[in-house]
Specification:
It holds the Pfam family Cyt_bd_oxida_I. The protein is mainly alpha-helical. Helices cover 67% and strands 6% of the residues. The strands form three sheets. The protein has a two-stranded antiparallel sheet. The protein has a two-stranded antiparallel ribbon with strand order 3-4.
């Protein structure tokens, strides 16, 4: 059934599908790990039970989301060898080391301290348990550091040479490879997005329980009020910071990947005397026009060049074969931006509610928070699509084309594995997500139960072997 398809297209679709599933979990757990560290620190310093109860509530969700993130991430590593073996061969000398560092530093750090964080509070003492919780949070950040460094190098390659015989990228300066021109901006923008994603999920869960108490005529618990309040503080403070970081990232992209910005803005034509900011439109790659365009004159030049009359080149200066799919990039960028401003609006609304003393009894605010609960996940996916599709038709920007990076596989082979991934992912991760939602549907209680060990004694992986003439246990 896949014989008429292009193998490269199917390989791209497969990687996009698996990485989209995977990206949702780290986008949640990076922020959630830090939130757990904050809750644990507040419990140790204040001894207020609500912080301990919230820690016990969210650590169960973290454990499940973290596990699904690990499992879904392993698959992508295999695809480098199966579907993208040419890319791995050519770029491996450069990106292999940072990806190995991610495993050796971040993953080992997370895995080493995760068990202590989950089960060790009563075993190792509060100080070491707090240190383990902090190490898990640091590990998630280090993991993002290395992965985003590799991804950023593919967008703004630096610190390498190309072997004229093999075509391989050879490392010359690892500092330039790691801290390539787009990396600091992408790291700040992505990690901040992860923190906002967690904040809006936590805020949505808190708002849901506040609404349930209101419908029942009950007083909301301190735990629900606390997590909603903390989430709204995060939204009010971090959302404007994220918009500022996004602007910096966009300016960096204009400098190093101007074609991507042309696609994001829908600029098929050059504008020598100031470019409009198109709010909406229908990109048409065939006619190279933005149909039904609605825009604000010269505002794009003001945002990108800080000058109303600054000239901006369009896609008419770029060969057709070097242009990304404009429709996808144009609309994914707008989805991300619209969600960002909606987050800002909710954060400002929460400040107004605080000022009026109505943070916990303003139903419209709570309904909006529930609606915005998954918005961070949508925004990070839209941002990822903008970034990665905007890099096309290259895997290493300007140097290695996607069509030249794929393994020599037949389309039916790639299509069959894609179908298998779709079936397994929706079954396994769908069940996991359903269970996470069930956990969120249960309100954190004043006596929230903790994660318990499977057994009070040592675990025997292979079971117990009978010992002849052994005394019976009392």
């Amino acid at each position: 059934m896949f014989e008429t398809f292009d193998a490269v297209f199917l390989a791209r679709l497969q990687f996009a599908f698996t990485v989209s599933f995977h990206f949702l979990f780290p986008a949640f757990t990076i922020g959630l790990a830090s939130y757990l560290a904050v809750l644990n620190a507040l419990w140790l310093t204040t001894k207020q039970e609500r912080f301990l109860n919230l820690f016990r509530y969210w650590v169960k969700i973290f454990a499940l989301a973290f596990a699904m993130g690990v499992v879904s991430g392993i698959v992508m590593s295999y695809q480098f060898g199966t579907n993208w073996s040419v890319f791995s061969d050519k770029a491996g000398p450069v990106i292999g080391a940072p990806m190995a560092y991610e495993v050796l530093s971040a993953f080992f750090l997370e895995a080493g301290f995760l068990g202590i964080m989950l089960f060790g509070r009563d075993r190792v003492g509060p100080g070491l348990h707090m240190a383990a919780t902090a190490m898990v949070a640091v590990g998630t950040f280090i993991s993002a550091f290395w992965i985003l460094s590799v991804n950023s190098w593919m967008h703004t390659p630096a610190g390498f040479s190309i072997d004229p015989e093999t075509g391989q990228f050879l490392p010359e300066d690892f500092w330039q490879i790691i801290f390539n021109p787009s990396f600091p901006y992408r790291l700040m923008h992505t990690v901040t997005a992860a923190y906002l994603t967690t904040a809006f999920i936590v805020g949505g869960v808190g708002a849901w329980h506040l609404l349930r108490h209101r419908r029942r005529g009950e007083i909301a618990t301190g735990e629900s009020r606390t997590m909603f309040s903390m989430a709204m503080w995060m939204a009010a403070i971090v959302a404007p910071v994220q918009i500022f970081l996004g602007d910096l990232h966009g300016l960096n992209t204009l400098e190093h990947q101007p074609v991507k910005v042309m696609a994001m803005e829908g600029h098929y034509e050059s504008h020598p005397e100031g470019a409009p900011l198109y709010l909406f439109g229908w990109p048409n790659d065939e006619t190279q026009t933005l149909d039904y365009a609605v825009g604000i004159p010269k505002l794009s030049s003001l945002i990108l060049k800080h000058d109303l009359n600054a000239p901006l080149d369009g896609l008419d200066t770029v060969p057709d074969e070097d242009q990304p799919p404009v429709f996808i990039v144009f609309w994914s960028f707008r989805i991300m931006v619209m969600i960002g401003f909606a987050m800002l609006g909710l954060g400002l609304w929460s400040l107004a509610a605080r000022a009026k003393g109505r943070l916990y009894d303003w139903p419209m605010l709570h309904r909006a928070a529930v609606l915005m609960g998954p918005s961070g996940l949508v925004a990070v996916l839209a941002g990822w699509v903008t970034t990665e599709v905007g890099r096309q038709p290259f895997t290493v920007y300007g140097l290695l084309r996607t069509a030249d990076s794929a393994a020599p596989l037949a389309a039916p082979a790639v299509g069959a594995s894609l179908m298998a991934f779709i079936i397994v992912y929706f079954a396994v991760f769908g069940a996991g997500t359903w269970y996470i939602l069930r956990l969120m549907g249960h309100e954190p209680s004043p006596a929230e139960p903790r994660l318990k060990d499977v057994t009070t004694g040592p675990t025997h992986a292979a079971g117990r072997s009978p010992v002849p003439n052994a005394p019976k246990e009392e």
